[in-house]
Amino acid sequence: MAKISSPTETERCIESLIAVFRRCAGKDANSSTLSKTEFLTFMNTELTAFTKNQKDPGVLDRMMKKLDMNSDRQLDFQEFFNLRN
């Protein structure tokens, strides 16, 4: 019988990121993407230190535009994952 290994720290982090994305996505309409409102909610609840330290009120709008590679005003998980850049 094969031994089942525990997930690595990296795997747990990715699973957590997916869970947060799923929890935030779909409150407006599409459960597989984040709308601008959902993205702003995510940023204000999950990355509060970052958002509170911003002096420029347009930084989140610019982040959304930069991440939205196909310009559909929605972030799928792949676009969202680029948040690290």
Mean pLDDT: 90
Strand order of the largest sheet: 1-2
SSE series: HEHHHEH
Biggest beta-sheet profile: 2 strands, antiparallel
Radius of gyration (CA) equals 15 Å
Structural class: mainly alpha
Q: What low-confidence regions span 5 or more consecutive residues with pLDDT below 50?
A: none
Q: What oligomeric state do these chains adopt?
A: single chain
- In one word, what is the shape? globular
Distance separating the two termini: 42 Å
Number of helices: 5
User: What helical percentage do the residues reach?
Assistant: 40-55%
User: Could you tell me the strand content as a percent range?
Assistant: under 5%
Q: Number of DSSP strands?
A: 2
What descriptive keywords fit this protein?
single chain; 85 residues; mainly alpha; two-stranded antiparallel ribbon; 5 helices; 2 strands; globular
